[in-house]
């Protein structure tokens, strides 16, 4: 049985609470708590980078699994890493002493965990030589937010952390079922870091205009196009992942989504017929790129939310814009 056998997370020590965010952004504390859905979030120290956060999370899994038994490592975390044009996965493979594993990276910003789980499952299904694949991720995207830029307001929840998951052919705790993915590439230029790439290479002008921070060039236009399709596309990928798994929406027991504003989270639960007690909301963690559903899965296990034969869906969306969901049967 191919499934997720272990998960782990790493939370940086520094906490930024809603009151501090209110001071940084000028947004009232109650708005940050009630609408942004943030009581607090974690921020990494200056010497902890995306690769270090991923290593810290993965080491917890390797306390239970021999590093030499890992066949492949996939980095699915934030594209904002220690360096540009650089593979964090190579450093992670070395630091974890997984000497028999090859490594590579997947990048689809926030939507990547359900996709990485699908890719790992498909690799194990198709390649007899593979048994254990370690998914690893780090996020330090708190560094790319300019709190003085109102255009990036919806990204004020960006936080830092590490996450990892072991996908194996010898799973006893869960079975990975099917996935569904939708991409609407018309949003390709709506959220980006304007400076530092080949279009606007680093220069004094890039720094003086703060073009090294994430931005939304036209938030009103993006909102008008995104709002009508966002929840429907979440529902589509959840529903199709379940149908491809031989299940219906009514079979869904647990939803593990990325962190969004509170109203979107509640609407999503309402549409799939679940309550707050059947989902994990990261109001004490914030949004950590692709890590969120992995955090959710880990916390759901810790809280005892997953029961034998429960059907869970990990679901996320990433700017660009891609919606992705993967269904899991919990064996326990």
UniProtKB/TrEMBL annotation:
The keyword Transferase applies. Residues 104-185 form the Beta-ketoacyl-[acyl-carrier-protein] synthase III N-terminal domain. Keywords: Acyltransferase, Transferase. Residues 242-330 form the Beta-ketoacyl-[acyl-carrier-protein] synthase III C-terminal domain. GO terms for biological process: fatty acid biosynthetic process; secondary metabolite biosynthetic process. One of its GO terms (molecular function) is 3-oxoacyl-[acyl-carrier-protein] synthase activity. The keyword Acyltransferase applies. NCBIfam families: PRK06840.1. This is 3-oxoacyl-ACP synthase. It comes from Siminovitchia acidinfaciens. The lineage of its organism: Bacteria, Bacillati, Bacillota, Bacilli, Bacillales.
């Amino acid at each position: 049985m191919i499934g997720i056998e272990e998960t782990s997370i790493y939370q940086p020590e520094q906490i930024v609470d809603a009151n501090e965010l209110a001071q940084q952004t000028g947004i009232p504390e109650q708005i940050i708590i009630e609408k942004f859905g943030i009581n607090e979030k974690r921020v990494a120290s200056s010497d902890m980078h995306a690769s270090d956060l991923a290593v810290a999370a993965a080491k917890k899994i390797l306390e239970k699994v021999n590093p030499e038994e890992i066949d492949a490592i996939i980095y699915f975390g934030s594209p904002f890493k220690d360096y540009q044009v650089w593979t964090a996965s190579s450093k992670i493979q070395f630091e974890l002493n997984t000497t028999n594993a090859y490594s590579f990276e997947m990048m689809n910003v926030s939507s990547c965990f359900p996709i990485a789980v699908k890719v790992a499952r498909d690799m194990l299904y198709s390649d007899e030589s593979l048994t254990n694949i370690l998914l690893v991720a780090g996020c330090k995207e708190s560094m790319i937010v300019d709190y003085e830029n109102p255009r990036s307001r919806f990204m004020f929840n960006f936080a830092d952390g590490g996450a990892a998951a072991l996908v194996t052919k010898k799973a006893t705790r869960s079975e990975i079922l099917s996935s569904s993915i939708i991409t609407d590439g018309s949003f390709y230029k709506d959220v980006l870091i304007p400076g530092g790439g080949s279009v606007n290479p680093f220069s004094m002008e890039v720094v003086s205009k703060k073009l090294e921070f994430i931005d939304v060039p036209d938030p009103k236009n993006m909102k008008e196009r995104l709002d009508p399709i966002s929840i429907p596309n979440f529902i589509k990928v959840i529903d199709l992942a379940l149908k491809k798994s031989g299940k219906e929406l009514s079979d869904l027991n647990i939803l593990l989504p990325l962190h969004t504003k509170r109203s979107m989270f509640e609407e999503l639960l309402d549409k799939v017929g679940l309550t707050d007690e059947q989902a994990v909301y990261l109001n004490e963690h914030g949004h950590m790129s692709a890590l969120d559903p992995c955090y959710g899965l880990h916390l759901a296990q810790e809280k005892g939310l997953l029961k034998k034969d429960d059907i869970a869906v990990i679901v996320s969306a990433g700017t660009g814009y891609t919606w992705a969901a993967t269904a899991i049967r919990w064996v326990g």
